[in-house]
Write a structure and sequence with these properties.
By secondary structure, the protein is an alpha/beta fold. The protein contains 38 helices and 39 strands. The protein has a 7-stranded antiparallel sheet with strand order 14-13-10-11-12-15-16, sandwiched between helices. Strands 17-18-21-20-19-22-23 form a 7-stranded mixed sheet, with helices on both faces. It has a 7-stranded antiparallel sheet with strand order 32-31-28-29-30-33-34, sandwiched between helices. The longest helix is centred in the first third of the chain and has 18 residues.
């Protein structure tokens, strides 16, 4: 069928901020869809709230709305733009929920808009578990015994019929949020309450347990002519009971028989047809009994899913791009396979390699919560590795994770024989290391399989690597037999690991290996197991004789990516790497991208001329450098990951473009940087550096408490803390020293009640130009990534902004920066300006500022790195900001029960949104709503603050009282406000009798909570208040500056409707 000509304009729904369960894989999918639809000649309207994405760059759509993804705002955009159709299936769960909400409000019918790919009924059947269950039973497929509950009483009734254990699954949520496994009635109450609160429909499904069964995912596609193909099978290494996003997975599946695979394929096609996905892709999950082979359909995602990005990267088959074209009328046989150039999309991909995905967690950010894994996803990112075997891909994946410390140290921590069986039986993010420890201690595979429910095939593969390690340990680097060395490399063991086993260093192993002629070769991902030549250089390394690189003689630039998403290093850095690939390509260079993150646009084979899907380690990057011989390597755009490689690469003679290694070290090493500021006469907080506990105590006693502890060479405030006393200091210094990895730890005098700023600029060695100044709304002590922020600054004197620009420019020229740089300042109101730190690289604020000022900042930086001056580029003055822009962070607290949602110097947010408006209040309101928060326009505001915050509370309380809110407070705060003449309703503390503040929260009598931290140790009442507010969806603000901004937002919301303006129009106005 030809494409549809009755459609002119298509609205694409994005997925919003990066959250657990819905990360940058939807930027990849959405970008592909927008590209494909524009290439087909359609006018594309995009709605997404995330400024850090590639898809929200104005060139990827005709009208780009960076607006809250809430029904009221999207309905307004539909009414403005009048699209002919909406594509909801590339925006994750957010896109599906929005499409259904628009239908239920009558917007689609009123505006004459149709849904592409999957209609309303298909979306409902795919998402509503009860409808899905009935649909599966209609076509004769086995589903789990289950029952629905809309209340706790109904949940107990269903549990009585099903028995324990059972699975609790909320409807219309992502990443299993709110779900879990209940083994008894008490656990059922706790999980069911969370699930009911998490479900937009207020309903949960309780299912019989199939814990211990295999979990298999199938990615399938269907077109309007009813052609269907299987794109990829993905097998979870962990058995049922661990969310697939938290499980190690592999593609293709490894342990099923051919008849079992064919049966699953047939079942998957029956599912997609019955649900009614007319044109597009779907992810279908099955459970398979390892004993009997019985199959059960678990669920279906009627859209491009998290696993779709993995399947696309694993196979080279661009699922979202194909799905977008299918949605507008094409059939699979009409679309070419871009990787081979000679086949069509109706050919099912075939793999002659193995892909392994390993999740990346952030439990170190939330030490109060348990690390046990279950049906609710908790990982914040993932890596993907490709190898000739499962064992090779697994070890490459472990190398790509960038964990603190060595893998051997993690195994040692899990190897205690007394606790080993418990650690094997309990799914946790470190269980793989317990498995390795057990096999090294001689546990039989069958025994480990019984304890973990992991298939024996995977365990035998892991045991073989352990056996090789023990054999290698018997030799030294000179006497190690060639065959054993080659076998170890084929099993994925890195040179650093072999050096540890052989008692020598990484470089000694590398040199000996190359002397013996044992080199990596590179293979292409071709979608067809080598049956057709690959036209696209999408490469991975392995060991063998045949190499498929086909290196050219063109001028080359290699860009090092940012690795797995984690808190502090996320999609913002991938944005920078993607734009670098585009920029250097425009400059005439052959671009080479190295990354290991399957979720990203950077690992789309269309982004760069060559893609190496490899771990970002010294060994792997050096091997590519030797093969490609780039003219320059870019390390300043991928966050700390490539920066940590810069020293070794420089020592090996690799040409680093942009800011030189010594300047990077000068800025990152807190001791050296402190001396530079003294030399330049630039103010900084009183500080000192320490490498031992005694040194830390001495520094703190000299500069005085409170002190801010911060290690060098980290992102996201890792291991940073404000310490108010010596006991707290000693605890945090130990953590910071471990993370710093031998670098000194800096102790700063903490500037209480200061305002912080981020200044981004580009320098060429002779000139430095400020790109933008972001003012943090939260006061000092809150990580900049966790603070809402405003561009341009508000309530900041012009002379202070000018001083920041002057100091930032001086530092850029003093450091010899070529490219991007970020400077962080603190300004105590009425006091002197202080420099907190300099980041000689792209910062996480670059995409936000680039969107706001409408300029390709990364492109400018790349031109500078390639040798052009800022004058030649035409970027010589700070750009004008055409509106008010507010960034709001998004937090994962609901995923981690027991966590206190208080903010501090260590970053905890997973993503961000942007609010755009002519005034600050409206922009903040949009950002707050876009971040998934509610803003009450009336009701009772509960305020409870630390004594030191009471003077600052007064203007906040007056603001809310002036908006018509009733103030409520406990004794001390109430007395303070009453003395100032404000009426307050007193609320009991927890120990003062009932009903107390928690009762009022649970009963819905409090509509907003303002509760600040109480120093070095959180008060139990405060923690309980914040946790209950989080649990019951009551907005909780933990800083007074944040509360004042919220008041401005509420005032703006009450005064007028939210207007939506595309970025393209803002740019034209600017």
């Amino acid at each position: 069928m030809p494409k549809r000509t009755d459609l002119r304009s298509i609205l694409v729904l994005g997925s919003g901020p990066i959250v657990i369960g819905q990360a940058c894989e939807f930027d990849y999918s959405g970008t592909q869809a927008c590209r494909a639809l524009r290439q087909e000649g359609y006018r594309v309207v995009l709605v997404n709230s995330n400024p850090a994405t590639i898809m929200t760059d104005p060139e990827f759509a005709d009208a780009t709305y960076v607006e809250p993804l809430v029904p009221e705002v999207v309905a307004r955009i539909v009414e403005q733009e009048r699209p002919d159709a909406i594509l909801p299936t590339v925006g994750g769960q957010t896109g599906i929920n929005l499409a259904l909400a628009l239908h239920e409000r009558g917007v689609l019918d009123r505006c004459g808009v149709e849904l592409l790919g999957a209609g309303v009924e298909a979306l409902r059947v795919g998402e509503d578990r009860d409808l899905f269950k009935r649909a599966m039973e209609e076509i004769g497929l086995r589903v789990l015994r289950s029952g629905y509950a809309g209340s706790l009483a109904e949940a107990h009734e269903v549990a009585g019929e099903l028995g324990f254990p059972l699975i609790v699954r909320p409807s219309f949520t992502l990443g299993g949020e709110g779900g879990g496994v209940a083994y008894n009635r008490d656990e059922l109450e706790q999980i069911a309450l969370a699930a009911l609160a998490a479900s937009p429909a207020g309903r949960v499904l309780l299912e019989e347990s199939v814990l211990g069964w295999k979990e298999i995912e199938l990615e399938v596609m269907r077109d309007l002519a009813d052609n269907a193909i299987l794109v990829c099978t993905v097998e979870n290494v962990d058995a049922m009971g661990v969310h697939t996003g938290d499980s190690i997975t592999c593609a293709p599946q490894q342990t099923l028989s051919d008849p079992e695979c064919r049966a699953l394929r047939d079942d998957a096609f029956a599912v997609i047809r019955r649900v009614g996905i007319a044109a597009g892709g779907a992810n279908i999950q099955f459970a398979v009994d390892p004993r009997s082979g019985e199959r059960v359909v678990i669920e279906m995602n009627p859209r491009v899913s998290r696993s779709s990005a993995l399947a696309s990267k694993a196979t080279g088959f661009p699922i979202a791009r194909i799905a977008a074209r299918l949605a507008v009328g094409y059939t699979l046989d009409e679309l070419p396979n871009e990787v081979t150039g000679g086949t069509c999309a109706a050919f099912e991909p075939a793999l002659d390699y193995v892909v392994v995905k390993i999740p990346r967690w952030a439990f170190e950010k939330f030490p109060e919560t348990g690390t046990t894994l279950g049906t609710a996803m908790k990982s914040v990112g993932e890596v993907m590795a490709i190898g000739s075997s499962f064992r090779e891909a697994l070890r490459k994946g472990l190398a790509a994770l960038e964990l603190d410390g060595t893998l051997a140290a993690r195994e040692a921590r899990m190897s205690d024989p007394v606790r080993l069986r418990e650690r094997l039986a309990t799914p946790s993010w470190e269980r793989l290391f317990a498995v390795i420890a057990a096999l090294r201690q001689g546990w039989p595979v069958a025994e480990v399989a019984r304890a973990t429910a992991i298939d024996p095939w995977f365990l035998r593969e892991i045991r073989e690597v352990v056996r090789l390690e023990e054999e290698v340990r018997c030799w030294d680097v000179r006497t190690l037999p060639d065959g054993l060395l080659r076998a170890a490399k084929e099993a994925g063991l890195g040179d650093a690991r072999l050096g540890l086993l052989l008692g020598c260093g990484r470089d000694a192993v590398s040199a000996e290996r190359r002397r013996r002629g044992i080199h990596r070769v590179y293979k292409r991902v071709d979608t067809c197991a080598g049956e057709y030549p690959a036209a696209v250089p999408y490469l991975y390394s392995t060991w063998g004789a045949e190499d498929e690189v086909e290196a050219t003689g063109r001028r080359k630039v290699m860009i090092l990516g940012s690795g797995p998403n984690r808190i502090g290093q996320g999609i913002e850095f991938d944005y920078c790497c993607v734009h670098a690939a585009f920029a250097f390509s425009r400059l005439g260079f052959e671009t080479i991208l190295v990354n290991c993150n399957p979720e990203t646009v950077s690992t789309d084979y269309e982004t760069a001329d060559r893609l190496y899907f490899e771990p970002l380690t010294h060994e792997h990057v050096m091997a590519i450098c030797r093969r490609e011989r780039p003219e320059g390597v870019i390390v300043q755009l991928g966050g700390q990951t490539p920066l940590k490689l810069a020293k070794g690469l420089t020592a090996a003679g690799v040409p680093i473009w942009g800011t030189p290694w010594d300047a990077i070290d000068l800025a990152e090493d807190r001791r050296r940087f402190g001396r530079l500021l003294v030399e330049e006469g630039i103010r900084q907080p009183e500080h000192g550096t320490a490498t031992t506990r005694d040194e830390a105590l001495a520094v703190a006693r000299e500069i005085g408490f409170p002190v801010l502890v911060r290690p060098s060479y980290v992102l996201g405030g890792r291991a940073m803390a404000v310490c108010y006393d010596e006991a707290t200091l000693l605890r945090y210094v130990d953590q910071a020293a471990e993370v710093a990895g031998g670098h000194p730890v800096l102790l700063d005098r903490f500037l209480d009640d200061a305002t912080e700023f981020d200044v981004d600029l580009i320098a060429d060695g002779e000139r430095a130009v400020v790109c933008g100044i972001l003012q943090q709304i939260e006061k000092a002590g809150i990580h900049s990534g966790d603070s809402a922020a405003a561009l341009p600054p508000y309530r900041t004197p012009r002379e202070v902004q000018e001083e920041m620009g002057d100091v930032a420019r001086r530092l850029a020229l003093r450091l010899g920066v070529r490219g991007l740089m970020n400077v962080q300042f603190a300004w105590p109101e009425g006091g002197p300006l202080h420099v907190l730190e300099v980041n000689p690289r792209a910062s996480r604020t670059v995409p936000f500022i680039a969107k706001a000022v409408g300029l390709p900042l990364v492109d400018f930086a790349c031109q500078v790195m390639a040798g052009r001056t800022l004058a030649e580029i035409g970027f010589t003055a700070e750009p004008r900001v055409p509106a008010r822009f507010v960034k709001a962070p998004v937090f994962p607290f609901r995923r981690f029960p027991g966590v206190d949602p208080i903010l501090g110097p260590e970053m905890k947010s997973t993503g961000e949104v942007m609010g755009v408006a002519p005034d600050f209040g409206t922009a903040f309101a949009k950002a707050w709503l876009g971040a998934g928060n509610r803003l009450p326009l009336a009701g009772r505001v509960f305020v409870s603050v630390h004594d030191r915050d009471k003077p600052g509370l007064l203007p906040v309380a007056r603001q809310f009282a002036g908006l018509g809110f009733t103030l409520a407070a406990t004794g001390g705060t109430a007395e303070f406000l009453e003395e100032e003449g404000l009426p307050v309703e007193r609320v009991r503390k927890l120990h003062e009798g009932r009903p107390h503040v928690i009762d009022e929260l649970i009963n819905g009598d409090l509509h907003l909570v303002i509760n600040t931290a109480s120093g070095s140790v959180a008060h139990a009442d405060d923690v309980a208040i914040r946790q209950r507010a989080l649990q019951h969806g009551v907005p909780c603000i933990t800083t007074l500056s944040g509360a004042m901004a919220a008041a401005a937002a509420i005032a703006a919301l009450g005064a007028a409707q939210l207007e939506a303006v595309p970025l393209q129009r803002l740019g034209a106005q600017g």
